[in-house]
Specification:
This protein is 14% helix and 31% strand. The chain is an alpha+beta fold and 176 residues long. A seven-stranded antiparallel sheet has the order 1-2-3-5-6-7-4, covered by helices on one side.
């Protein structure tokens, strides 16, 4: 799902002491949907539990062998999907609903079946209709970088954004 949402969320969430805190994907109260990456209704999907904060998104997960390419190694298309998702959701706080126009991925090391990883996405540059993002996947045990990515997203027209917000259960002006 390369669509994103928000208005008030342009400001990061803070705890009572004013420190930034991560919001969970579920904090955004998105209506159930079938996105392969983050949708809870997709029986064969990844079911990513995203966390968002101030132009960033991350998720920690362990992938089972159903997402295997070569024996014991996660398929590169799944790696790309995860990176696309965290980069797209990094735009959530910018109300930058849109689609992926271009993505470049560098595979640094194989991601193994059963390996716990953390995927992170962030905003690199934000222009009127074009958003550039960066992302990476790291091994949570060693901190080694396993894959990196850059992407360009094109904003949806305002009418389409309104449709998407309605479809995903976000009222006009509601950030989450």
């Amino acid at each position: 799902m390369s669509e994103t949402a928000t208005t008030e969320a342009a400001r990061p969430a803070e705890d009572s002491s004013g420190r930034e805190v991560l919001l969970s994907y579920s904090d955004f109260r998105i209506a159930p949907h079938r996105c392969f990456a983050c949708g809870e209704l997709n029986e064969i999907g990844l079911h990513l539990k995203l966390q968002l904060a101030s132009g960033r998104c991350r998720v920690e997960l362990t992938l089972p062998n159903q997402f295997e390419g070569w024996e014991g190694i996660i398929h590169g298309g799944i790696v790309c999907t995860i990176l696309d998702e965290v980069m797209a959701w990094a735009l959530v706080e910018r109300d930058a609903w849109g689609v992926t126009a271009r993505m470049s991925v560098d595979f640094r090391r194989p991601i193994l079946v059963g390996q716990t990883i953390r995927a992170e996405g962030w905003i690199v540059e934000s222009k009127r209709r074009i958003q550039r993002t960066g992302g990476r996947i790291v091994d949570t045990q060693t901190g080694l970088e396993l894959a990196t990515a850059e992407a360009t997203y094109v904003a949806a027209p305002e009418a389409r954004k309104r449709e998407l917000k309605q479809r995903y259960g976000l009222a006009a002006g509601e950030s989450r």
